[in-house]
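Q: My labmate handed me this sequence with no annotations at all. I'd like to see what the chain might look like in three dimensions before we decide whether it's worth expressing. Could you predict it?
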Amino acid sequence: MKTNFHITLLKACFGFLMIVLTFRVSAGTWRVNNSDASANFQSIQSAIDDATIVSDGDTLFVEGSATSYDGFTCARLLYLIGPGFRLAENPRTGSNASYAVIAGSATFEDGAQGTVFSGFAFASGSSGYEVDIETDNITIMRCYLTRGFAING
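A: Here is what I predict for the chain of 153 residues:
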């Protein structure tokens, strides 16, 4: 009798774990491109602000463009992934060798804990191009930072 209880409890825990994992696996991915109307969003800020479509934990793939992206403020857990840099030097890069350039500040506020920001460049020579970190646990990696760039936090 005790064994049946343990087996039932184990099955219930396993079922609960599967439900929880299913929700995490179903995070969405969204395209951001300021020069392609077929993308899900034309600006990073509009994607961050649209809580009806973009959920916490979703990934925003920000595509390279000849036009810089405006700065933004993020107060949600998101994965912001740009194309990287020095793309023309790598022959196996996709057909678009443009950077995803941020012309302004990238600000991470309370609520953005756990956010990953990767593969972006910041506009060289523009004033106010910086990353403002106003919370904990923000990962910034593989970004192209030029002279005069500031990280505040």
